[in-house]
Amino acid sequence: MNRILTLCSVIIICFCWFKAPAQNKTLVDSLRRVIARPLADTVKVIALGELAWEYHLHDKKEALRYAHQELELARKINFNRGIGLGYMDKGVTYSYHREYTKAIDHYLQALPFLKKANKPLLVALMHYNIAVAYSKFEASEKAIAYFLKAVDLLEKQKDWANVSQSYTGIANSYNTLKQFSNALNYHRKAVQVAKTHADYEMLAVALTDFSGTYNTLFDTNHQKAYLDSSLNCLYQVQQLLHKKLVRNPIMQPSVTFNIANNYFQQEKYLQAIPLIQQALVLARPVNLEAAICQGHTLLGKIYTRQKKYALAEKHLRQALPIALKTSPLFAADTYQALQDWAANQEKFREAYQYQREWATLKDSIYNREKVEIAEKLGLQYETEKKQARITTLEQENQWERQLQIFYLILAGLGLLLSGTVIYLLRLKQKIFTQKANLLQEAQEKAYLRQELAEQQREKLREELLLQAELNALREEQFQKEIDYKERELTTNVLLLEQQSAFLQKVKVRLATLLPQANGLTTDLQKVCKLIDNRLGNEQDFEKFMLHFEKVHPDFFNHLDQVALNGLTPADQKLSAYIRMNLSTKEMAHLLNVEPKSIQMARYRLKQKLNLPEETDLISFILQL
Length: 624
What we know:
Keywords: Membrane, Signal, TPR repeat, Transmembrane, Transmembrane helix. This is HTH luxR-type domain-containing protein. Residues 1-22 form the signal peptide. InterPro entries: Sig_transdc_resp-reg_C-effctor, TPR-like_helical_dom_sf, TPR_rpt, WH-like_DNA-bd_sf. It is built from 26 helices and no strands. The protein has 624 residues and is mostly helical. It has a domain at 493-622. It is elongated. 31% of the residues are buried.
């Protein structure tokens, strides 16, 4: 059966957004002719299952219809393998369409029939599929338990590819639980199994997921060694690709992009850019939309940081429609990158619009996560309830078997033991009633615990929201104070500049009048001297410096720490004006000197600060 063979191998494929081909029309027509012919019912069951498999990717309704027909016909002829496969086909369809609760329910129903049909490999794969579905809900403990069962069964079948993938699933589940030591141990097991059995396709998958866990460790602990370990895993995959030991067409662009992303996290943009461009070229032929979207977004972020705004905009505009179509998370990331791009250019209106789009998407993602959490809790409750029911039924079945044996003995003893039989029947009823009462009580307690946990989570969420709003208000108030002080400081400097310019003009005008003043020459000279004294007066600047220190605290302390022999008041003035981003001409007016003198003063200040020749003085001071 094609779908069983595919199920055995599909586990090794990386999760991605690579579009699957449409169903095989020739095969579908052939299978429909099979179920229309007067053939054995078992053959028709198999054909119906194959039809369900052909439709499960593209037409959920049609796939479920054929799987239901498969299941009904198999039940009718008491065909255990067909019943198990019918439930399995329904589960696979629900799983592909993200209805994991229903998928788990059908996988669990498939298990006893596949066991009766003596299909140990399919039983193992059902455990694996259940584990994968639980991992989608981030029910990691349950996922790990089923992965371990799958490993035990798969090892007996010597299915080493899926053993390796199961170890990878366990590692990823521990990664979700932030139990990184366990995660790394199981990643190593997955890699070792793949290497031992020379399964290079599975080795590439195991190493890629291993790299992802190291990235999570870096995000958590910010230690560069984790990025180096991640890159080492990706380089091993790249070597397998270069040797043509791995032929998965989506692996090359995925690995190339992951390497580029590692360089981006280390701010090594010159190494990252060509790798991203290479990943985009490789991703387009296989329509790997996730890599295409993230590649353009990452290039946009890099070019924004490099102030190459035109290139940044080009790539972000290319990423946005793909992100909106592919994933809300990708769209939120792209809008945030566009917001940074606009803000860096002081296009605050555009930045605000992108921020609103980002906030809307974050709200949408948050609501979706709430729904998934609710589904997860419902699934856990239903599973626990079903497990309790199964346990009760097994106990009852065991008890019934014991009673049947006992009844056979009683039949031989005849009427003499009839009283004992009646007593045992009453005892059985009493025990059954007690078990039912205990089960109901346990269910009620579980429901109450669930309600209490939900209330506590809601209270915590409200507290976090209130704290976030308070922090935002504080940040906004602080920013307003900074903006006000910046405007006040700039206004004072402009007033000083206007005053100095005016006095300079008066001085020049008086100087032209001196030859014609006759008896007023002495008085005019005194006025000129007063103007010179005013232009050189330090009192106004001291007030300015006091105000400047309030806006930029510790600025001069930082300068003094860098300077070799300390700074003069003139050096401090020049540094303050540079920090305010004044032009050379404006500084010359304020200091009553020629622009060339400002350039010389900047050169001397750079020497005092012991800055390398390639370091720009203005950029250095603006960063303090």
